[in-house]
């Protein structure tokens, strides 16, 4: 028997950032899984931007409204001449609201896993903010982070919008908050958190009528076909995203519609009819449960803003 990892390394490891190895090992588990960070290649980042525009997906527009509405107060809390460090920057749209409100922002450091996408959007931002030191970093921010200090060591403020924290299981979310706190060098963190609410509303947000979330989910397999020469039949898998009310989370799956085998990187993976592949969890919190977790991670939870329907929350956490 040859070691599975030795074979997987025949796939191009550099460009895929470990996608091949992670995919193969995830599909070798029972139940099968694919890590959600692999959603965000160029195509996936664009599909995610389309999700943010969907009528059912209230998160983005609610968070943007909160940011705009409270930008002045947030800017006061952050102070002047700061560096803003954004975790999982995506389209860089939200940070503009902060950059416009903060007094004389010194630097902006977006971290994102999608290098192509980050490069493109960072160029556009650089043109609009000529005085800002912009240093995009292509990395997986869930790993240990050593972001070198800038000359003159401006105070560093964290920005983690979009409720991405919800994609981590509570233990991992707490560990991530601890690492973020360490990388902020004493500065605060502005974080967006989606809230527990009517399950019908939550369900609709991940099962949109236009089917964009289904395409986003299936992009994991489309990406494997593109990058790794896999032969997933996208029509032979169904997007399935129920709300698990007891666990306060949306669970996303790709379910095999028939018994089938798929080859990737010279190996064959078997799927039973009806077999699920777990692709994402999206945990929802109450304002109180999130503040409690942040406090356990070593933060001092201060201001919190929410909309009148209590759909979404923005938290200002001080790291003391
Ligand atoms: C990355 C946290 C913003 O969990 O809502 C959207 C990703 N997945 N639709 C979320 C996602 C399916 C999303 N966030």
Structural class based on helices, strands and sheet pairing: alpha/beta
Helix content: 25-40%
Order of helices and strands: HHHEHHHEHEHEEEHEHHEEEEEEHEE
Name the bound molecules. N,N,N-trimethyl-histidine
What is the CA-based Rg, rounded? 20 Å
Overall shape = globular
- Count the beta strands: 15
Mean pLDDT across the residues is 91
User: Which stretches are poorly predicted, pLDDT < 50 over at least 5 residues?
Assistant: 1-16
With helices defined by DSSP (H or I, 4 residues minimum), what is the helix count? 12
The fraction of residues assigned to DSSP E strands is 15-25%
Distance between the termini: 53 Å
Specify the biggest β-sheet: 8 strands, mixed
Walk me through the structure.
The protein is α/β, with parallel strands linked by helices. 38% of the residues lie in helices and 23% in strands. The chain contains twelve helices and 15 strands. It has helices at residues 4-8, 13-16, 19-28, 42-53, 58-69, 71-78, 93-101, 115-128, 170-183, 199-205, 212-228, 287-296, and strands at residues 32-33, 83-87, 107-112, 133-134, 137-138, 156-160, 189-194, 237-240, 243-244, 249-256, 260-264, 267-271, 276-283, 300-306, 312-318. Strands 2, 3, 4, 5, 6, 7, 14 and 15 form an eight-stranded mixed beta sheet that branches. Strands 1, 8, 9, 10 and 13 form a five-stranded mixed beta sheet that branches. Strands 11-12 form a two-stranded antiparallel sheet. Helix 4 (42-53) packs antiparallel against helix 11. The longest helix has 17 residues, at 212-228. The radius of gyration is 20 Å and the shape is globular. Residues 1-16 have low confidence and may be disordered. Bound molecules: N,N,N-trimethyl-histidine. Residues 51, 59, 162-164, 166-167, 206, 213, 216, 280, 282 line the site of N,N,N-trimethyl-histidine. Residues 51, 59, 162-164, 166-167, 206, 213, 216, 280, 282 line the site of N,N,N-trimethyl-histidine (AVJ).
